[in-house]
Amino acid sequence: MAELFIQSAVRITSDQVWVDGEKISIKKEEEVSWLTNIYRNLDIQYPKFFKMDNLCKAGFLAAEMLMGKSGLEPTEEKRDWSVLLFNRSSSLDNDQSYQQTIADSANYFPSPAVFVYTLSNIVTGEIAIRNKIMGESCSYIMDNFDADILYETGLIGLSEGKGIDHLLIGWVEFLDDTCDVLLFHVTKEKNGKTICPWNNVGIKKFFL
Amino acid sequence: MDSLIQELKEEIIQSLNLEDMKPEDIDANAPLFGEGLGLDSIDALELIVLMERNYGIKLNNANEGKEIFKSIQVMADYISKNRTK
User: Fold this and answer.
1) Which ipTM score applies to this complex?
2) How many contacts, defined by CB atoms under 8 Å, are there between A and B?
3) CA A97 to CA B11: how far, in whole Å?
4) Could you tell me which residues come within 8 angstroms of residue A21 by beta carbon, excluding any fewer than 6 positions away?
5) Confidence band, pLDDT 50/70/90 cuts, at residue A66
6) Looking at the partner chain, which of B18, B38, B46 has a beta carbon nearest the beta carbon of A111?
7) Domain hosting residue A114, numbered range
8) In terms of DSSP H, where are the helices of A15-121?
C-alpha cells in the first residue's frame, strides 16, 4: 500500500487556530467576525473573501495557511493538486440565510449573492480558483469527522488520481457560528517539510 | 440627490459585502463594473433586487440594467425619476 505524507495541517475552531499543532495568536477586533479577524491577521488581499459564505470563508482561510506553508504563489498554476473535502452539515448554514430571504411572501426578495453558496462543493471551487488548482475537486458528506474515511480517501485520491501529487484534504464544517475545520496538505513524496505520515494516528493528532 | 447618492453607496457596500470599503472611497461617477468597483454578474443581480426592494423599481430588460448601473450617479438619477417607494 502506498505511503503518503502530511506536509502541514491547519485546524480552525470557533475561537482558536493551530498550524501543525501550534496555536496561532489571532489579534481580534470586536466589531468583525472571527473569520474576518483571521483573514486580517493573514494580511492577504482578496476582496472576494467578503462575498463568501461562512463555510467557504473557513475552508478558504485554512487553505491560505497551508498554501502559504507550501511556498507556492496563488497565481502559480497547480496541475498536480486536488481538493477533497468532507463535512456534516453541507451548506446548511448558508441555506438558512437564503431561506430567510424567501420566508416572507410580503417581503420576497431572494438574494442571488446568497443563493450561489447554497451548495457544499462551492468551497472546493473557491479554493481551486484562488490557488489555480487544476486537479479534481470533490466534497462529501459524512455523519461525523472520521479519520479512517479521511485516510482511505486520501490514499485513493493520490494513488489512483492520475497526475496528482498533492492533496488538500480534510474536514470543513460550519454551522450556526460553530466552526470546525481540519485541513491537510498531503503528498506522495516525503521531503524536508514533512511533519508525519498520512495515517489514522497522524490525522487524529491534529484534531485538537 | 446627494443624500440619495450617499444612501446608495451605503446600501451597495452592505448588499454586496464590500466590507473593506467606506462610502467616501466610492466615486459616484466611477464605473460600477470592470475597472471601477470591479463588480461581477452576481452583483448585477443583487443590484436588480436592491432596486425593487428599496425603491419599487422592477427592471425586466437586461439592456436597461447595463445603462442604469453605469455608475452610482446614473443609478441615483434613474431612481429619483422612477421610484415608487
Assistant:
1) 0.83
2) 31
3) 18
4) A9, A205, A206, A208
5) very high
6) B46
7) 5-205
8) 34-42, 54-70, 92-102, 112-115
